[in-house]
Amino acid sequence: LWKLLCTYLPCDVLSLQKSIVQHVEYTLARRRYKRDKCSFYQATAISVRDRLIERWTDTQQYLSSKDSKRVYYLSLEYLLGRNLQNAMSCLALRNRYAAALEELGYSLEELTEEERDPGLGSGGLGRLASCFLDSLATLNFGAWGYGLRYKFGLFEQRLISKAQAEFPDFWLKEGYPWEVERPDVQYLVRMYGEVEDRVDPETGEVKVAWKGGEDVLAEGFDIPVPGFHTLNTNNLRLWTSKASCEFDLGSFNDGQYYAAIEEKERSEPLTSVLYPCDNNAPGKELRLRQQYFFVSATLQDILRRYKKSPSHGLLDLPNKVAIQLNETHPAIAIPELMRLLLDDENLCWQDAWHIVHNTCAYTNHTVMPEALEIWPLPLVEQILPRHLRIIYEINHQFLSEVRRRWPGDPQRVARMSIIEESEPKMVKMAHLAIIGCHKVNGVAQVHTGLLCKSLFRDFYEMWPEKFVNITNGVNHRRWMLQANPAMSAVISKWLGTHDWVHDLGRLERLKELSSNPEFQRDWQEMKRYNKRKLAEFIERTCDVDVDADAMFDVHVKRIHEYKRQFMNILGVAYRYLRILSLLAEEKFDELRQVVPKVVIFAGKAAPNYSVAKDVIKLIIAIADTINSDTRIGGLLKVVFIPNYNVSVAEVIIPGSDLSQHISTAGFEASGTSNMKFCMNGSLLLGSRDGANLEIEQSVGRANIFMFGANTKEVRTLQTTMQYRKPQLDGRLAHVTQEIRSGRFGPTSFDSLVDSLLPENDRYMVGHDFGSYLEALEVSDAAFRKPEEWTAKTIVSCASMSRFSSDRCIREYAEKIWNVEPHQFRPPN
Ligand code: 26Q
Known about the structure:
Elements: H1 2-5, H2 13-27, H3 37-66, E1 70-74, E2 78-79, H4 84-90, H5 94-104, H6 108-112, E3 119-120, H7 124-138, E4 143-148, E5 153-160, E6 163-169, E7 180-191, E8 194-199, E9 206-211, E10 214-226, E11 233-242, H8 257-265, H9 285-308, H10 317-320, E12 321-326, H11 333-344, H12 349-359, E13 360-363, E14 374-376, H13 377-383, H14 385-405, H15 410-416, E15 419-420, E16 426-428, H16 429-436, E17 439-442, H17 445-455, H18 457-462, E18 467-469, H19 476-482, H20 485-495, H21 517-542, E19 551-556, H22 565-584, H23 588-593, E20 597-602, H24 610-627, E21 636-641, H25 646-652, E22 658-661, H26 673-679, E23 683-687, H27 692-699, E24 705-707, H28 711-720, H29 730-740, H30 750-754, H31 765-783, H32 786-798, H33 805-817
Parallel strand pairs: 1-4, 1-12, 4-11, 12-13, 13-17, 17-18, 19-20, 19-22, 20-21, 22-23, 23-24
Antiparallel strand pairs: 2-3, 5-6, 7-10, 8-9, 10-11, 14-16, 15-16
Helix pairs in contact: 2-3, 2-5, 7-33, 9-11, 11-12, 11-14, 13-14, 20-21, 21-32, 22-24, 22-29
The structure holds ligand 26Q.
């Protein structure tokens, strides 16, 4: 009987239709005759989820039976994007579901649009985590992601009165059909309270007890993570905070019933909201509590699963478990795992340290000082008194080692300490993570170089073997196959196979075809089609009519000074003024040479980051002036697309010709959208920063437009600028003068413009502006030759195999986790 019951659900078109209609009626309890897109989306999603769940439970069962090593990816952020089409493709059921829905009167495309994007992250780091989950599943690794289930994701951005306005993103409003609540997976997480030293009367050993404080309850929600065309289905477990009153009913007995419940209710908001920062680390108490809550629940869960197997001794943990810390956000895992091993498992310090150190690894994503997490020591002491004791002990042992290796070098000792002797004292989470982990990795060559040469230099000198580079990668199945079906079809047609979907290296063969006129025609038609779709999207979201034959020049990412959207918009203003002067001087030959362009911006500014919000205002002001100036005809349009997120990116990236990645050298750790744009036949205009440099190596100098100072020059300039004030580029001076004079509306943007003064120009806009304009000119000249341009975009796309997250995950598996993929087959 069990054999009969354990077969997988049927997947013929009729069975899929039945399952969808049944979910409308029985799961959602809605009338199946009522035509309602939202219900049909949800029912379809649940029908797909049913088919994932079978593989998911089988995978977990298989992994336990094989006792193979597991990877746990700990991240405070995930930007999953929509799941419906991804899950269907993974199951190889996309066409059948599309056919099933067609007959029910819905197109898959329209139902896709019903899905809300869970914005549980703020930018690149969260999206990277999601790409990693997909590759881990596809490559048959047994890996779980852990994160927080924020009630409100990253805010929704609307443009009101020509500025950013933030609205709460209550993404769970209609329910999230991909998750499964696990009321049986609950842990208590303690915060605050006191520590007490207790001497064991028998052994005389001093034990530390953590008493009092408040308990918060963590409950797990699971989201299945399917691999592409494999049965392997992993799990993403997200924690939500709950009142812990169910756990200690005893305290209600003294008549304090309501007071007790009220107090317990305070725990609910812990996972309410995601901090909307990227590359910035505000020292907020709630954030530290979120981090600890996340880490403690996760580690309790990992240990519980590990200990279920009777053969597992704790000392063996590093051979069975790899824990990857995504940035220092979960770095409190180091003392927390120590605490669990010392206080709950009664291990000695040496054994506990051996386990922690060999299990955990840390990925750094930034060198910007303001993004490095440091917490006021008094705050740590208040919330996590036991952990502070452990941190002191870790630091004490570590500094003794430093003193042994470098006797008579107290400055080095002070520099490397976890505790900064400031007022108040601060706890440096990066130091804690480096000391507590067996590997530390940067996310692009130049970035890792900077970690070793400057930011973590002392640590690199001490443990050179600890530092590795693993250049980021992106999931090409989402960013090519799913986001750009038109291009995928052209590629598969010309290669005669779909095998590139599994192995991006297969794209190399396209290079030979890059000048083939028929292939070029297909490629150009595909690009035109994607640009028309983007043009329609722009019309809908910005109410601006743009010409799909113009060059689409795109700059989309979080708004930040170091990413230099400001430099881009100054360049746009320059282009506009130049067109006007050509018109005024009646230079018609030169005017004919001007490449018609649509400049597209999108991205969110942190709500309290006023400079970034001013940049958005300036972009909108300049866009309004240019778009309403009928003199320049269609030569230039500028749009700011609101509410940039994963699904908006999936429309913008395939429709772009040129994309800008123009951070000041040394500031963008890697960048990942640069890879996505290249994969979609868009050429990069890039600074000498992050992964741009490695992309340049792969695609070749002729197929990318690079400009500006490199990291070394930036460093030298930053020290010499204080003494030598260079002249502002004449073109830049002209543009800023026009902005101040009110050419682009009544606001004069004084503080933005003043930031260009050499003494204020931390991000080298003034220095790089000239070479930036030259790079733009080179790209214009290239665009004027369509065959050459097309060949460049083909070669650039065909050179992307290194930038697949599949390659990246294989490197983590080999260099850091020491895990092998498994070969899971269905039970028969
Ligand atoms: C820290 C403390 C308190 C509140 C918020 C934060 C916080 C949150 C998010 C700090 C930083 C982040 C996000 C950083 C991020 O997205 N970094 C990007 O990571 C990408 C993936 O490696 C890189 O490609 C980008 O270069 C890097 O900027």
